[in-house]
Every structure is written in C-alpha cells, then in structure tokens.
Amino acid sequence: MELKDCRRRIDEINSEMERLFLERMEISLDVAAYKQEHHLPTFDPAREREILRRAREKAPAGLAPYVSHLFQQLMEMGRSYQNRSVPCEETLTGQIRAALENTPKLFPTDAVVACQGVEGAYSQIAVNRLFQYPEVVYCPRFEDVFRAVGAGKCRYGVLPIENSSYGSVNEVYDLMKQYRFPIVRGLKLRISHNLLAKRGTAPGDIREIYSHGQAIGQCRAFLAAHPEIKVTPCANTAVAAKMVSESERRDVAAISSRECASLYRLDILSDAISDSDHNYTRFICISKEMEIYPGASRISMMAEMPHRPGSLNALLSKFAMLGLNLTKIESRPILGREFEFKFYFDLEASVYSEEVLALLSELAAGPEPFEFLGSYTEL
Ligand SMILES: C=C(O[C@@H]1C=C(C(=O)O)C=C[C@H]1O)C(=O)O
C-alpha cells in the first residue's frame, strides 16, 4: 500500500475507533447508574480480567502486550468516567474552594515562622526570602517545626524538602506523611557551601569537619580529597558553625553558609566546596490550615498504590490526560507494612481548573488513601 493509502485507512480506523470509544464511555455511565442503584463498587476486577483474557486470546503473540495495555487503559478511563458521574461527597473540592475564597490576596509580609537550626541556618535564609519581617522561632529538630505549627505557636513552618544534587530530605517527607499539613509556598534557594574555621586557622590544621548530613552529601568530592579529615554530622550547618566558634579546639571546621562566617566570626577557608555549582534546595512553607494564594500553580499530594500491575501507571495517566507536568515523584516506606509505599507527587497544576478539581475529588473518593497537600507558588 502507498503511504497516502495507508494514512487514509488509518484515518478511517481512527474515526471508527473514536465513535466506538465514545459509545463505550456512554455505556459505562449506564453501568455506573446500575451499580449505584444496586450499591455495587465501580471496580469489578473479575469482569476486567475476563475482558483482558478474551482480548489477549484473539491477539497475535507479538501484539498481546499492546492489546493488554490498550484494554487496561480503556477500562481505567471507563472507571474514571464512571466515578466522575457518581455524585460524591465534595469535601475536598469544598475545602479547596473555601480556601481560595478565604485566603487573603497577598502572602503575608510578617508572621511567626518556625524553622530548624539556629541563626544563619539555610532554613532561616529561606524564611527571610519568603517573609519580609518574620519573627523566627528556632527548633532543634524538623519534627519540632511541625509541632510548633500544630500547636499554633507559629503560623508557618519552613523546611528543606529536596536538594538538586543530593536528593530528597527523607525525614521531612516522612513528617509530611505523619502531620499532613498543607504547603502554602515553595522556594528554590541556591546553596553555596563554605569551609569555615576560627580566625587565623590554616587549612592544613583541620582534623575534623562538622556539618549537617545533607551538606556533607553535597560536598562529597571536596571531602574525598581530604581523607585525613574526620567528618562528623550534626543537627544543622549553622549549629556546626556555632560549635566551631565556641570550641576551644583550633583544628575543627564547619561546612556552612557565607552568612554564618560573619555571624559567628569565622574565616572562610574554602568557598564554593559543593560538588556542583548548580546546587539548589527546595524549601516548603507549611501551615495548619489550607491557604491558597492567588496564582498558585503547583499542587502536592500523596497517595498509596495497591500492589497491582499498572496501578502507578493508571494514576500517572490521569495526570497525563490533563496535560499536567509531574515535577517530582517520591516514595517512602509505610511503617509497619512490608515493602508498601506512600507516593508523593508535585505537579504543575492549577486548582482554578475545573478539570483538576474533578480529578482531585475523584482521587479523594478512593478507594486508595489519598491526601491533598496544598496548592502554592514556588518562588
Ligand atoms: C464498565 C464497567 O465498570 C468497570 C469498567 C470496565 C470496563 O471499562 O470495561 C469493566 C469493569 C469495571 O471495573 C463494568 O462493570 O462493566
């Protein structure tokens, strides 16, 4: 067959397939109405298995996987369409609409904000970027930031969530799983690490370096070039700088920010010691109540996936169907369960879109556990 003849035939098939697809979707709605009347769940695994078996039987061996995938997608779309037709409790969309209505138009310039560490911590630098006049409450651990927000002691909490060269801050992801506080703002901050020591210390004198595990992980090449130096993790990069400044020893140094050098009166022995010049950390600003400020263009959520082939793919297809770009996916083990995970998703998506709201309410309706983690702007 000539190319143009092939294409003409493909066009005819496409039209026919579209007509049949639309008819199939409409009939799905009749099935949904029947199921609702008879209190039956949307998902009927036995029926889906039977459909797949029959379809695969007819397919030539090489095409069976394609046929399976096609029918899985068809049934997934059928279920999604059915779920949307069923009047469901609009709790989540109601909450989102209320947040859109009740959140002030401008992000606050001053607030009481919790962050981990001490003066000069990268989290505190992030707080200063997010708020013009913050009252900063320093917490010893990440969890204390969540607690301060939960107890109403601080209106907001600022936490690092991910670094461009060292990856996720797992502890913060796990705390998000536990506390489920919505994210109201995001910030991408360029991080440039320095080696700080007491004034007058010679680089050759250093025998021990303190820093936070994340910062140590972001300076692996520098540390590998100095195997004689002991590396000791501590709570925070600013805590490390403070420890060095207060120490009697003259052979210790800290990996910390430039700000900490002047704050704790330390010398910069080496600057820009990060493995990559493009070293960025993403921070999140959490609050106890959902707040959605104008222009919010990102959505964060978490979901549990059942152990079924294609279950993650099914969720990702729902995002793809709306043309939503996934900017982050992370999975964290669920405590007390064997190799079962909670997935986190960050999407470029707008809660001003009715289609996105419909998707969120479909996911919130279950059957798998799902949590909306806010909609926000990332600076
Ligand atoms: C349409 C139905 O609902 C769901 C969707 C199916 C499909 O698209 O073929 C099959 C089984 C159900 O999980 C049905 O039960 O027939």
From TrEMBL:
<feature type="domain" description="Chorismate mutase">
    <location>
        <begin position="1"/>
        <end position="86"/>
    </location>
</feature>
<keyword id="KW-0511">Multifunctional enzyme</keyword>
<feature type="domain" description="Prephenate dehydratase">
    <location>
        <begin position="112"/>
        <end position="288"/>
    </location>
</feature>
<dbReference type="InterPro" id="IPR018528">
    <property type="entry name" value="Preph_deHydtase_CS"/>
</dbReference>
<dbReference type="InterPro" id="IPR002912">
    <property type="entry name" value="ACT_dom"/>
</dbReference>
<dbReference type="InterPro" id="IPR036263">
    <property type="entry name" value="Chorismate_II_sf"/>
</dbReference>
<dbReference type="InterPro" id="IPR045865">
    <property type="entry name" value="ACT-like_dom_sf"/>
</dbReference>
<keyword id="KW-0584">Phenylalanine biosynthesis</keyword>
<keyword id="KW-0963">Cytoplasm</keyword>
<keyword id="KW-0456">Lyase</keyword>
<comment type="pathway">
    <text>Amino-acid biosynthesis; L-phenylalanine biosynthesis; phenylpyruvate from prephenate: step 1/1.</text>
</comment>
<dbReference type="InterPro" id="IPR001086">
    <property type="entry name" value="Preph_deHydtase"/>
</dbReference>
<keyword id="KW-0413">Isomerase</keyword>
<dbReference type="Pfam" id="PF01817">
    <property type="entry name" value="CM_2"/>
</dbReference>
<dbReference type="InterPro" id="IPR002701">
    <property type="entry name" value="CM_II_prokaryot"/>
</dbReference>
<feature type="domain" description="ACT">
    <location>
        <begin position="300"/>
        <end position="379"/>
    </location>
</feature>
<keyword id="KW-0028">Amino-acid biosynthesis</keyword>
<dbReference type="Pfam" id="PF00800">
    <property type="entry name" value="PDT"/>
</dbReference>
<comment type="function">
    <text>Catalyzes the Claisen rearrangement of chorismate to prephenate and the decarboxylation/dehydration of prephenate to phenylpyruvate.</text>
</comment>
<keyword id="KW-0057">Aromatic amino acid biosynthesis</keyword>
<dbReference type="InterPro" id="IPR036979">
    <property type="entry name" value="CM_dom_sf"/>
</dbReference>
<protein>
    <recommendedName>
        <fullName>Bifunctional chorismate mutase/prephenate dehydratase</fullName>
        <ecNumber>4.2.1.51</ecNumber>
    </recommendedName>
</protein>
<dbReference type="InterPro" id="IPR008242">
    <property type="entry name" value="Chor_mutase/pphenate_deHydtase"/>
</dbReference>
<comment type="pathway">
    <text>Metabolic intermediate biosynthesis; prephenate biosynthesis; prephenate from chorismate: step 1/1.</text>
</comment>
